[in-house]
Amino acid sequence: MRSEERFLEISHLTKTYPKADGGEAVIVRDFDLAIAKGEFVCLIGHSGCGKSTVLSIAAGLLPPTEGGVLVDDKEIPGPGPDRGVVFQAPCLLPWMTAFDNVMLGVAAVKPDAPRAEREAIVARYLERVGLGTAMHKKPAELSGGMRQRVGLARAFALDPKVLLLDEPFGMLDSLTRFELQEVLVETWSADRKTALMVTHDVDEALFLSDRVALMTNGPSAKLGGIVEVPFPRPRTRAAVLEHPEYYPLRERLIGFLEDEAHTQAA
Q: Quick one: pLDDT band at residue 82, thresholds 50, 70, 90?
């Protein structure tokens, strides 16, 4: 990838923690990944391999032991509005409505914008994720899937340079998961934010991404390869499933995960 295409660059990333015996636990070592502007990349690997650690460092929530993260050629100093983050649980303030939860972020990044403009932004993204009739309900009145829709709307409404998603649908049932994958594709397609999403779901990765980054098992996890996803956009689930490359790619990803599982067992 040419240097001008490296919009999000994770370079020589290493993360260690001290152990009680005086040694160190190496979670990730020399992890490298570059993502072009407007590209959607999924990072897959077994649970506990360090995927979320990489994403948390990219979000500025964890400091790296070595290496660093660049967004648009600037090293990140910590958390910032240039990165919208979506976690498994959306962490909504329970005493506020969906609208007000999203407004908190918009007001923080656009403090000088007229209130009407901020309200229009909030309403637009809540409508995009399918909450047009539920935006004034509080979290307790919303299902788990609806609360995660609020989390997606909040991240997109910040107008970040990069979108970071940490298994955002991992706690949802299969039907709701499929619905929200569609919502994410449609919302992302409107402005093509540069996106990095952690998942352990091979089918989810193939449906959403332009490339799939493979992460080896820990300790000392690293990038184990990149798989190009050739399915054209705009993308529908039916078209992806019917594409002649779908099942060969699926088997390739599953084969990688199985090989990593056998390596760990050995």
A: very high
